[in-house]
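Input sequence (146 aa), recorded before submission:
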Amino acid sequence: MFLGSHAINMDAKGRFAVPTKVREGLMAACEGRLVITAHYEERCLLVYPEPQWQELLPQIEKLPNLSKAASRLQRLLIGYACPMEMDGNGRLLLPPTLRDYAGMEKKLMLVGQGKKLELWSEERWNAWLDSQAEDEMTDEMLSLSL
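Predicted structure, token format:
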């Protein structure tokens, strides 16, 4: 279970160190093997432990490709998917295509989302936090008692 937000830095080559607590969870979940891909709605990245991605991939592939929305989702999630493995120091190297998609430079935010993580440019993360929610609360959301 990945929780919390972590401010991290990326070097000029596109490398960043995964915070220790997150690294420990990733090592337990997937021995450091991940798949990073484009988010389908936001300009950020999704970080999946490899077993989670292997469960999700067949579901994405089964979507009806005659639907423009489904095709877009497939193109983003599968087309940007990049398998990778943390090095001995817990670092990952983001390819330029993923960095460009998410507008990533030096300052990043790694945000836990339960079974996966999101990786944001710090600037876009802060802009998202400052934005107003455009969607109305669904019945499922209204049923929560926080």
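Checked by second reader. DSSP finds six helices and eight strands in the chain.
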